[in-house]
Request: fold
Amino acid sequence: MIIHDFDPKTPSMIDMEAFYGPRQHQVDKCLILFSKEIHDGLLDRYDCTVIGRIGACNGSTPIYCFSLDGEPVAFYLSAIGSALASGFCYEVHWQTGATRFVMFGSCGSLDGEVTRGRYIVPAEAYRGEGASYYYVPPADYIGIKNADRVAAVFDELGAPYVQGRVWTTDSMIRETVGLVDRRKRESCIAVEMELAGVQALCDFYGLELYNFLEAGDVLAESGYDAEGLHSANHDLGKLRLGLEILKRM
Reply:
């Protein structure tokens, strides 16, 4: 079973050097983005240069660098989903040297009363995906170790937030009524698709991840409501908060 595929005793068969050459060190910090609009907004706002590319047979994803208060910072548009997002993170680390990553995106609320008008700072993520089981021992949840540091920045800035458990899933179209109810009974307040895998990879390789979310669609007993999804996906307020976290690392 996949939950038993964590193998810390034998080396990986594949090394990033085979694809990208020796490990580079160009920056220390990096933004992981999921919104094309936020990504393009950064390109318009800053003088950006390409410092690497995440390559694949179906195309490549550029890794950009810009100056934030005189410090070089990388960013890229991540693929969606735990497996791809975690893999992208390590490929960017290899090519740029970044060890501190700020990741933010949208999520589905499991409790509209709790999340309405607030950002979400995940403290734990349910491992309802596959990638995390290759990087850390099996368990239902993985702790998000920098949650309190993100919360402290939000407190300093006066940004409204709620801290709690979230659910990482590999398939949003199989978020069934029964599974939603089960996660809610375990005190999950939101569902998303990347965090457990990216946190597990960062734990394995000694990288630092800082994550927060904004709820858009709502999964409730009354049904599915997608009205706020576009706004949550592309809200530039998340970018401002992400940049403030970067400055305080």
The chain has nine helices and eleven strands.
